[in-house]
Amino acid sequence: MLALILDSIPQGVFWKDRDSAYRGANRVVRLAMGYDSEESIVGKKDHDVASFSREQADFYVRTDSIVMESGEPQFDIQETMTLPDGSTICLETNKKPLHDPAGTVIGLLGTWQDITARKRTDDELLASRERLLILSRHLISAQEAERRRISHELHDEIGQVFTAVSLHLQLVKSNIPTECSPLIDESLQIVGKAIQQVREMSLNMRPQMLDDFGLVATLQWFIERQRKHSGFEVLFDARTAGQELSSDSRITCYRIVQEAITNIQRHAQAEHAWITYDESDVGVTLSVRDDGRGFDVIASEQRISRGHCLGLLGIRERVELLDGKCEIRSESGVGTTIHVFLPSQLNASES
């Protein structure tokens, strides 16, 4: 009855003596090793199996030895097995020591599960994730390049056009009847407002000072601008180590602060926000905290999976693309903290 049960299950079951010689195995194992009957497998060792490679047999015996010498079971051993037809399968194996009545280890009992299909699926998912990461990296890079281009065009091209229009209007004003001056003045005000809007759009797209003066100076400038418009106090503390961040790290930190402050302004109803930036030899730590009304992080994570809360999703994606870590903590009535760590990376000119 026991033999019938063992031969009916899809998992492999085998048992060995102290010398790693097989004393028995169920039908799944026997077929995988190329043996027709239980008698034909008894006394065989892994190095005797024709289809096993030497590396495979060495690995099996080595794990046998670990189990029998330590007297402790080994679980979820990942290994491969070559079948008589030349194909190779992936196994997840468990091995447990067998004891005699005196407690002495006299062998082991092993079981294995064919995980070839699961392993193939896992590999395909991993490859798919790698492709998505590469695509996301290229997408964000292209997005930032496009923002930089548009920012320059707004500042250099359209800004200069409006400036020229303003100068021409001023020249016209000095050469027209006085009764037309109010219309020219109104036009100058419209052009002046347009110049200011173009400048704001250019800065929001991509501040040039990020490349010219570095991240800390840009964050100080951005925070000073926010103090005038946000309605809450923003405090900034920066500790630098004198290292030059990569372009990707600089823009990622800037976008995180930009997105976090925008969210605080729109949703948090906060009175204060604290931004801390700390450089070290191993990387950069960035934290944005507020004393606003907070939100349900778990519910927001679920909304992200449904395509909402894209700001938080963008922060996470940017951090993950740089192999960093992002933690978002929030509590109702207490506020929210976004904590980010980015490992050190070579500057683009050095990589």
Explain briefly what this protein structure is:
It is built from eleven helices and ten strands. By secondary structure, it is an alpha+beta fold. The protein has helices at residues 2-8, 27-33, 38-41, 54-70, 116-173, 181-205, 209-212, 215-229, 247-268, 297-305, 310-321; strands at 12-17, 22-25, 74-82, 88-99, 105-114, 233-239, 272-279, 283-290, 325-331, 335-343.
Please render the helix and strand layout as text:
Elements: H1 2-8, E1 12-17, E2 22-25, H2 27-33, H3 38-41, H4 54-70, E3 74-82, E4 88-99, E5 105-114, H5 116-173, H6 181-205, H7 209-212, H8 215-229, E6 233-239, H9 247-268, E7 272-279, E8 283-290, H10 297-305, H11 310-321, E9 325-331, E10 335-343
Parallel strand pairs: 6-7
Antiparallel strand pairs: 1-2, 1-5, 3-4, 4-5, 7-8, 8-10, 9-10
